[in-house]
Amino acid sequence: MRRLLTGILAALMLLTLAACGSGKTDASSGGKKEDSATVSGVVNRMGDFLVLLTEDGAYQVFDFGEDVDQESLEEGDSVTVTYTGELGSEDPAPVAVSVEKTDAA
User: Fold this and answer.
1) 71 is in which domain, residue-wise?
2) pLDDT confidence of 29, banded at 50, 70, 90?
3) Looking at residues 57-73, what average pLDDT do you find?
4) CATH of the domain at 82
């Protein structure tokens, strides 16, 4: 009876360890899998970062990604920003991976 109980407990311990180690990560982003999202608005300010006045009236701050062409953007442009990270977060700020001009309505 002891051997059966010991075998069952050992199997349960192995299953819990296997469940803890089954998460997949993306090695290219430092072990974190980052999904992208989009938000539209008007460029309010540009410098080392982008401040966007969104369609719902909120200001969002973005760091620029490597592939964003800042030269083609001006304050007042209507844009759609594709970003990674969490809106409203300051540390770290979301990163704009692409900024596309849109037609203002």
Assistant:
1) 36-101
2) very low
3) 91
4) 2.40.50.140
Q: Are 40 and 102 in contact (CB under 8 A)?
A: yes
The structural domain count of the chain equals 1
Show the tokens assigned to 100: 């596309």
Q: 83 or 104: whose pLDDT is higher?
A: 83
Report how far residue 99's alpha carbon sits from residue 20's, in angstroms, rounded to the nearest whole number: 38
Name residue, tokens 């819990």.
16
Q: What is the DSSP letter of 29?
A: G
With respect to residue 62, please indicate whether it lies within any of the assigned structural domains.
Answer: yes
Asked if the structure places residue 20 within a domain, the reply is: no
Residues 99 and 74 sit within 8 Å (Cβ to Cβ): no
